């Protein structure tokens, strides 16, 4: 039995015993299915019930399953205009490949290490805690978190008010979260006024004003390296950190002039710009703006990892969720592989690797993970 035949059989078996996998309003969703080589090889399919959907998936064993965030009158119709759009969820896609982490300079962006998972989870939690709940007023019960099955998380807002938003309105939401269009003079109204202290946002302020102040205080408390990561040069970072208590006290009162900084307006404008870029790098704005986007079906298997694109649910569940332990789908076999080169990783509560020109026997989930990641060749299925 070759590798793809084995994996297809395991995927089919998973769907034969699966339940609770269909999304709400299944008859009004468009579905797309992929192969080992294409994430979406066919689309414009619809199903009348969960039973029909699961029967199709068990029979065809798709390596990728996507569904529309939109609801349609005729989801299988073509072209898109003929579907009869009825509304769409608001969705955010946070993927670690959109982040710039030190570990990625070592293993590249095609690999996801434990540090990657920690950081992308933190960004998903930040999106909920700092934007969706306080700024947009969504309740946590309206927010559903799903593991993507590979490198990040999909966050769905299921609120009646957002369903009718068009692409432009969704784009504006993405832009706000990304910090696009932030004005330095709006945050610092006394900027450029001779003889006046630089007055700016307080950590208790609403929206981006408060966020900017809190983020800078957090960087102060994190040490000089955190300040340097925001774009502060080493000398100024040292000065700010040494007087951090004074600086923090000033910011809490809206006074950003507690420490002398040459060309202070240019300096703070640069810090604002750096924070906005950091935010935008973590949100795939095209997914948020597209009211007809196909996104991975929760609890389906991801064809690039063999992991379940697990429905996590709430933010509190996300805090406890461990992808490489909680999203394993393929078990029950020992598989021998040849690994030219692969980073070490933890999976299923065990540690594997690193490997270089190695022949090893692994649990099925670890062997399939390496194979689908393009890191190993399967030599024997036991």
Brief summary of the model shown:
The protein has 382 residues and is α+β, with helices and mostly antiparallel strands. It is 38% helix and 19% strand.
Structural description of this entry:
With 382 residues, the protein is α+β, with helices and mostly antiparallel strands. The protein is built from 15 helices and 15 strands. A hairpin with a 7-residue loop joins strand 1 and strand 2. Helix 5 (167-178) packs across helix 11. The longest helix has 19 residues, at 114-132. It is globular.
Strand order, sheet with most strands? 2-1-3-9
Percent of sequence in beta strands: 15-25%
Low-confidence stretches: none
Based on CA inertia axes, which overall geometry fits? Answer: globular
Largest sheet: 4 strands, antiparallel
Topology:
Blueprint: H1 3-16, E1 31-34, E2 42-45, H2 50-60, E3 64-68, E4 70-72, E5 85-88, E6 90-95, H3 104-107, H4 114-132, E7 143-147, E8 152-157, H5 167-178, H6 184-187, H7 207-222, H8 224-229, H9 234-242, H10 244-252, H11 264-280, H12 285-289, E9 294-296, E10 311-313, H13 315-320, H14 323-326, E11 334-342, E12 345-347, E13 350-352, E14 355-363, H15 364-372, E15 377-381
Antiparallel strand pairs: 1-2, 1-3, 3-9, 4-5, 6-8, 7-8, 7-10, 11-14, 11-15, 12-13
Helix pairs in contact: 1-2, 5-11, 7-10
């Amino acid at each position: 039995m070759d590798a793809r035949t084995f994996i297809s059989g395991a995927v089919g078996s998973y769907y034969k015993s699966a339940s609770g996998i269909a999304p709400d309003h299944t008859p009004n969703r468009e579905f797309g299915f992929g192969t080992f080589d294409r994430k979406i090889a066919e689309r414009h399919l619809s199903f009348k019930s969960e039973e029909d959907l699961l029967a199709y998936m068990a029979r065809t064993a798709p390596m990728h399953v996507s569904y529309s965030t939109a609801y349609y009158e005729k989801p299988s119709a073509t072209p898109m205009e003929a579907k009869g759009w009825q509304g769409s969820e608001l969705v955010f896609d946070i993927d670690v490949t959109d982040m710039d982490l030190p570990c990625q300079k070592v293993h590249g962006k095609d690999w996801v290490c434990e540090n990657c998972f920690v950081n992308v989870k933190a960004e998903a939690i930040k999106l909920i805690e700092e934007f969706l709940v306080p700024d947009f007023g969504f309740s946590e019960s309206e927010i559903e978190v799903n593991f993507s099955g590979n490198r990040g998380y999909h966050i769905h807002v299921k609120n009646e008010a957002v369903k009718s938003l068009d692409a432009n309105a969704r784009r504006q939401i993405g832009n706000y979260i990304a910090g696009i269009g932030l004005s330095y003079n709006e945050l610092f109204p006394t900027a450029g006024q001779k003889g006046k202290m630089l007055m700016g946002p307080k950590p208790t302020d609403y929206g981006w004003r408060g966020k900017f102040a809190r983020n800078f205080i957090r960087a102060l408390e994190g040490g000089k390296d955190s300040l340097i990561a925001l774009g502060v040069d080493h000398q100024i970072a040292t000065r700010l950190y040494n007087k951090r208590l004074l600086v923090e006290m000033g910011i809490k009162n809206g006074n950003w002039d507690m420490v002398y900084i040459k060309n202070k307006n240019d300096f703070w404008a640069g810090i604002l710009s750096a924070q906005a870029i950091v935010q935008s790098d973590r949100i795939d704005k095209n997914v948020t703006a597209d009211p007809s986007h196909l996104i991975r079906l929760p609890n389906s298997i991801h064809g690039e990892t063999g992991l379940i694109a697990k429905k996590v649910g709430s933010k509190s569940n996300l805090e406890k969720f461990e992808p490489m332990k909680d999203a394993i789908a393929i078990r029950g076999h020992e598989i021998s592989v040849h690994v030219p080169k692969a980073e070490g990783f933890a999976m299923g509560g065990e540690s594997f690797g690193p490997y270089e020109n190695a022949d090893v026997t692994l649990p099925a989930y670890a062997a399939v993970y390496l194979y689908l990641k393009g890191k190993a060749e399967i030599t024997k299925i036991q």
